[in-house]
Amino acid sequence: MFLLPATDDAVTSVTAPLSAPVKVSFESAGRWFEALRLRRRHKHSLSHHSLQSSSSEESDNEEIEEEDNLILLQGLDPKEWKQQDHYAVLGISKLRYKATENQIKKAYKSMVLKHHPDKRKARGLKVGDGEDDYFTCITRAYEILGNKLKRRSYDSVDPQFDNDVPPADEESKKNFFKVFGPVFERNSR
Questions:
Q1: Region labeled Disordered — which residues (predicted)?
Q2: What is the DSSP letter of 30?
């Protein structure tokens, strides 16, 4: 780094010579080193890792369990996308309405990396033509669940939602919060 030149009325002078370089030992550490180490261990490319880490940086504590649903996906008819279980298509059927936006986004990115038609062609798998491919269902599922208004509408008619309410009897009156607490939690969505 150089100093700015002196003004016209000032005089510049050098008072000491440049010092010689000094060897410094250091230990690799930090999140970037850890990311590099994990990429090398799992043999992932930088682009694969950056897609996964971009959503994990937004929410470090939100982990999702991906479900292996290849058979479900291959059995989907893209023309019947309105009847499909969008949470199951994205592999987050256990979370359902409790899934956060970041979890949905992460699940979608993961599905794109696994099931995009170009990726499947590269692996030598059969790919349907345009609208006949099950990847269309993945895209539709994210269009619904990735939009707050559409997701709220979809969740309001979710057939897998537990809508049962315990009976009002003496036991439920004595332990009101214990009995009805889970019901309020489910319906607070």
A1: 44-66
A2: S
CATH of domain 65-162+177-189: 1.10.287.110
Give the integer Cα–Cα distance in Å for 130 and 12: 71
Structure tokens at 42: 């799992």
Cα torsion 144, 148, 153, 156: sign: positive
**In the chain, where are the structural domains located?**
30-61, 65-162+177-189
Looking at the chain, how many residues does it have?
Answer: 189
Question: Torsion angle, CA of 39/44/46/52, rounded to 10 degrees?
Answer: -90
Give the type of residue at 168: A
Torsion of CA 110, 111, 114, 117, to 10 degrees: -140
Residue at 141: amino acid letter: A
Whole-model pTM: value is 0.56
pLDDT at 149 over 80: yes
